[in-house]
Amino acid sequence: MRVHADRSRCMAAGHCAVTVPGVFDHGEDGLVVVTDEKPGEDYLEEIELAVDLCPSRALSVTRDQHDSSAPPK
Amino acid sequence: MLSYPQDRTCPYQPSPGYRELGRSGPLHKVRLWDGSTIWMVTGHAAGRRLLADPRLSADRSRPDFPVVLPRFEAPIFKPIAIIGFDPPVHDVHRRMLAPDFSLKHVREMRDEVVELTGRLVDDMLRKGPPAELVEDFALPIPSMVISQLLGVPYEDHVFFEEKTVGLLQAKDAAGAEAAGQALWDYLDELISAKERTPGGGEGVLGRLAGRIDDRDLTREDLLRIALALLIGGHDTTSQMIALGVVTLLEHPDQLAAWRAAPPEALPAAVDELLRMVSVTDVSGVRVATEDIEIDGEVVRAGEGVLVSSSMTNRDPEVYEDPYTFDIHRAAGRGGAASGRQHLTFGFGIHQCLGQNLARMELEVAFSTLFDRIPGLRLATPAGELPARSGGTMQGVHRLPVEW
């Protein structure tokens, strides 16, 4: 899977960095930074939670074709 | 048709009228003080969807923006910074403030908050019981924190606390305007002093005073931002501390669970308290700029929408036994973020700017208080506490405690 953050939508709520600190952080400007764009499948559940919690809809996940499970909502 | 708002009968549960309404679906028409009607949203999914929908405007200066209470007719509220602006102006201002309210900055502030909270408890213990917890503890914590963050002298706290309550709890528009104008004049003078200081002086206001231009941040913008942050920064958090203490004391099993919980379980416990108390009772007020179809209803262009936090936070689709207070309900995935689905801080681009600061202050406040004063108890039964009435923002005028 590949994790994407749209910094033009980010409002710095911080949910993502709290939910998956190994994948999301924020920069000096307070806005989201993806620190691991291709995290392992173990992170999927937490990343889905981060995507769901993001109030400004700045996060998305794309799944590789060979990923076995269904794509996230 | 139900009239809105309705007072609570329990400090940490929504009014019985809302509870009844919530049983009949996610959207309802309710009647406001001036006879107009507004959509009240009690469903969690519908509330989230509407608050994230760009077809709904937060612009308080629009003539069709709903006036939920008489005090909100005061001109001072009409263009209120950040919460009352739509993009693109909202986004420009919000991003200017993002570094100051970021997780990293909040984490850096924590030690200082621990220290000041400890000092307040020292003073309470030195004076001995009884204590008035709002004045002695719940109000000074956020008030000192926001003063320092903004660069507002804490020596002036009696003035700005009184005027904030005067503004937010005024019975009518004239009362709100008078209190708001006093705060405006005060901040105007403060910002002038910062403009004269080389480098801008202390705090967020000092930093932004050096950034005033005629494009992204006018002087009037900065004054409006200062007002919004000052009033938004202490009243909500102080009343959340007070009502959070009441909620914990009224649930001895949960207080015991809090004390026994490892530090990593406390963020979710704080979010459960935020869910239960829903201190503002409102996640957001908006006006539709287009017809919007949702859950079989049509919100027409020009109609007002009010998302209820106390009710969306008790949607049985999201929360099992939603009226039960359970600090471990979110245990599981997401670690420190596992309890964050509630709408107490709103949703969409207007979700509370200070939410991470508030969470940190709350965790420190409850932990310090119950660690240091394990025998703390209410000196007045919860049902007899002098509570705010007639509005949406919940709170108690006084919280007498003993130990």
UniProtKB/TrEMBL annotation, chain B:
Q: Reply yes or no: does the keyword Heme apply.
A: yes
Similarity remark: Belongs to the cytochrome P450 family.
Keywords recorded for this protein, A-Z: Heme, Iron, Metal-binding, Monooxygenase, Oxidoreductase
Q: Which GO terms describe its molecular function?
A: heme binding; iron ion binding; monooxygenase activity; oxidoreductase activity, acting on paired donors, with incorporation or reduction of molecular oxygen
**Known CDD domains for this protein?**
CYP105-like
Instruction: State the Pfam families in the record.
Output: p450 (PF00067)
Query: In terms of domain of life, where is this protein from?
Result: Bacteria
From the Swiss-Prot or TrEMBL record, give the protein name.
AbsX
